[in-house]
Design brief:
This protein is of the alpha/beta class and about 270 residues long. It is built from 5 helices and 13 strands. About 15% of the residues lie in helices and about 30% in strands. The radius of gyration is 18 Å and the shape is globular. Bound molecules: flavin-adenine dinucleotide.
Length: about 270
């Protein structure tokens, strides 16, 4: 994770390094590609819903095999760094968009952007290609007594926000802001609680993250206690949080904010 100040994470009961294979891919819109992974080891992934985060392992360019770390703990990172680069897999952070336990299937939605390692892997993924998963739990943990919520993010956080909405109680009230590259990336036919309004924002030529920040700044906050979950490019996440804390007096403890990626900087691994 690039940055995450809210320390609250709920971990699954147990975690294992899981190796799956691509079953199929589906282009959802110009930016989004869904990759369905499957295999018997999917049974070890506890369905947590919401922003269920995973470390996603895939072969480095030129590698034909996936060599997964063996440690089922955070020690995997040291193990990975000790592997020679020729055999070391790539690793990135992704979100479980859906799990179908009865089919041992997991969906991961990739926001494609250029020829980056993960985008290239997803674009070229074919049935049978190996990929690995290590569970990182969830960070969407609203207090029980909140009156309203704001969920906000860019395309990297869209899978998490949609999965949060999929698991939301019917009583959820609030505003959702999703900034995506173009109008063709808007999702239609979403089923959301009656108290939720989803605002789709097409970036067009605007600087990444600015539309979400402007939209949140123009939103009237209802009375009572709120909870905000915001993720995306690092400046989007910090900008929304700074505004809510400084200008709207939202307590820091009621805001979960996550830099999912950073302009001009590749993820480690
Ligand atoms: C907890 C968590 C969950 C995430 N879930 C998802 C998810 O479900 N789907 C998803 O698509 N992403 C998700 N992300 C974001 C994803 O991990 C990053 O976008 C990651 O950098 C992608 O790796 P890469 O190999 O494509 O690019 P990198 O090698 O990391 O970066 C290469 C270049 O691309 C730029 N870049 C990276 N990401 C983006 C982007 N999204 N748009 C434009 N430019 C970018 C970088 O600034 C860099 O210049 C998540 C991140 C976190 C921390």
């Amino acid at each position: 994770m690039t940055m995450s100040v809210l320390p609250k994470v709920r971990m699954p009961g147990s975690r294992r390094m899981i190796t799956l294979e691509v079953r199929r891919t589906e282009r959802i819109s110009p930016t989004f590609l869904n990759v369905t992974l499957g295999g018997p080891e999917a049974a070890h992934l506890e369905p947590m819903g919401f922003d269920h985060t995973i470390r996603f392992f895939f072969p480095r360019e030129g590698q034909t095999k996936l060599r997964m770390p063996r440690r089922d703990s955070e020690a995997w990172m040291a193990e990975l760094l000790l592997m020679p680069k020729a055999t070391r897999p790539r690793v990135r952070n992704y979100t479980v968009r859906r799990i179908r336990p009865e089919l041992n299937e997991v969906d991961v939605e990739f926001a494609l952007h250029g020829d980056s390692p993960a985008s290239a892997w997803a674009r070229d993924a074919r049935p049978g290609d190996p990929a690995g998963i290590f569970d990182m739990g969830i960070t969407y943990l609203p207090p029980e007594d909140v009156d309203w919520q704001i969920l906000a993010g860019d395309e990297s956080a869209l899978p998490a926000v949609l999965a949060i909405l999929d698991h939301a109680p019917a009583t959820l009230t609030g505003e959702v802001f999703l900034e995506v590259p173009e109008t063709a990336d808007f999702r239609t036919g979403l089923t959301v609680p009656d108290g939720i309004t989803v605002h789709w924002l097409a970036r067009g030529g605007a600087a990444s993250g600015t539309l979400v920040q402007e939209a949140v700044a123009c939103t009237e906050l209802p009375p009572g206690r709120g909870y905000v979950w915001v993720a995306g490019e690092a400046r989007l996440a910090t900008g929304v949080r700074r505004h809510l804390v400084r200008d709207r007096a939202v307590p820091k403890s009621d805001i979960a904010f996550h830099g999912y990626w950073r302009h001009g900087r590749s993820s480690l691994g």
